[in-house]
Amino acid sequence: MPAPTQRIGTMMSEINVVPLVDVVLVLLIIFMITAPMLQTGVDVDLPKTTTKPMPTEEERVVVTLTKEKKIFVDKYEVPPDQLKERMKAILERRVNREVFLRADQALPYGEVMALMATLREAGVEKLGMVTEPLEVKRH
């Protein structure tokens, strides 16, 4: 019988995907960290609730009420007495009359309700409240 031959260097015919998975996970973490930083607008302390995330449409209108009671339409400050007319002008050119309201959680309930009434009078058909996701403690 011939002596068995030993192979010293064997070639691997399979692709090693571990380094690929490592790189993809690092990129995923980087994007998860930087994505919230890309959101522009006025900083307010939003209430935390369990809701669906806000749609990512480019054509959305966001009205922000800060704790200093300043009103912003998207990124532009609007005096309270001009809000109704400004919103009517914005909404008359749109088919979608949906507006998202961001209000600081430190504001009294009546302030937010007064702003919502003004927006309704301006012709807003759908009014969405923007909140932050509630952090649920898991054991």
What does this structure look like?
The chain is of the alpha/beta class and 139 residues long. It has a domain at 48-133: Nucleotidyltransferase, domain 5 (2-Layer Sandwich), CATH 3.30.420.270. The protein is 28% helix and 18% strand. It contains 3 helices and 7 strands, in the order αββββαβαββ. The strands form 2 sheets. The chain has a 5-stranded mixed beta sheet, with helices on one face. Strands 1-7 form a two-stranded parallel ribbon. Strand 5, helix 3 (109-121) and strand 6 form a beta-alpha-beta unit. The radius of gyration is 26 Å and the shape is elongated. The N and C termini lie far apart (65 Å).
Name the features.
139 residues, alpha/beta, Nucleotidyltransferase, domain 5, five-stranded mixed sheet, two-stranded parallel ribbon, 18% strand
The dominant shape is elongated
Percentage of residues in helical conformation: 25-40%
The tally of beta strands, per DSSP, is: 7
According to CATH, the fold-level topology of the domain at 48-133 is Nucleotidyltransferase, domain 5
CATH architecture group name of the domain at 48-133: 2-Layer Sandwich
The main pleated sheet reads as: 5 strands, mixed
Gap between N and C termini:
65 Å
Give me the side-by-side strand order of the main sheet: 4-3-2-5-6
CATH class of the domain at 48-133: Alpha Beta
Query: Helix/strand-derived class?
Result: alpha/beta
Number of helices: 3
Looking at the chains present, what oligomeric state does this protein adopt?
Answer: single chain
Radius of gyration: 26 Å
Proportion of strand residues? 15-25%
Mean pLDDT, as a whole number? 79
| Topology pattern, helix = H, strand = E | HEEEEHEHEE
Q: Low-confidence stretches at least 5 residues in length (pLDDT < 50)?
A: none
